[in-house]
Every structure is written in structure tokens, then in C-alpha cells.
Amino acid sequence: MNDEKTIQAIRMRNEKVIGEVIKAYSRLLWSVAGAVLNNIGSVQDMEECVADTFIYLWEHPEKYNPSRGKLKTWLSIIARTQAVNRCREITKRNTVSLEDTNLPDCLGIVEGIMRKEAKQTLLAAVNALGEPDREILLRRYFYDQKPREIALALNLSVKQVDNRLYQTKKKLRQALSR
To answer: What is the pTM of this model?
Structure first.
């Protein structure tokens, strides 16, 4: 049965034909609604969008114009519109007013500022280190060199490198705790 005959039968309230349309296009409309409601809506929301699409077809078959496209395409557009409306409804329902929130905490601004300040403080403290402490620290934690490699490169003993690393980390902890 072609699209025009299908619509004519639906206008005549032929339940068998609407059942065939539901059977033929349910999967497609489910995927259309699912694409819009993905990560937002529930399975029930998608199911309702598909059902609302078929109800719309049953109640308004005269709105389909076969000269503008296929029934399949028209139903997909209706399903997408239903899903977008459902998405807006869900979003509106889940919206919290600004008065009810501590906005900086919600956006992570405080943590971001604290991390940025800590990073700047740490960088300033590292830059303030004297040599060879700064170079030892950079070689160990930036270049991931072992104390033995650092000792060879800087003509120091491994014990001296370990001691300087210990003292340097202690200084940096104190600088960050201020």
C-alpha cells in the first residue's frame, strides 16, 4: 500500500492500517527519538515520543502532504519534534534556580582558582630554588630521571641527590601550605 492510500485508510479510521504503520515504522521512530533523548531521557520518554507520533498521525492524517515527501520522513520529523519537546520539558524540570545553588561551587570555579593559585605558588617556589636543587628537582620529577642518573650528570653522590630532593620537597610543601 502506498503512502496516499495509507493516509486515506487512516482518515477512514481503519485500525488495521494504523497497526501496520506502527509495525512498519516503530523501530525507525524509536531510533529518531533515542538520538535526541540520548543521555537525557529515559526509555519511557522515548516510548512516549513514539506513541505520541502515532497518536498525532491518527488524529491529524490530513496534515500529511504526499507531494512534500514520504510518510516515513514525515513521521520521523514528527517523532523528532516530539523528542525535542520532551527534551525541553525534562531540562526545564531538572533546572535549579540560581538562588538555590552556590554557583561557584557548582561550576568548580573555587577549585579551579585554588588549583591555579597552587600551581602559580609552586612554580614561583621552584623558580626561587637555588642550583643544583632546582635542576635536581626538574631532572627527577619532570624528566623522570633516577637519583643515580642525576648524581652522575651533576657529579654528586646519590646520597647528596636524595638529601637535596628531601630538603627541596620540604621547602616546596612549606611554600604551598602558606
So the answer is: 0.53
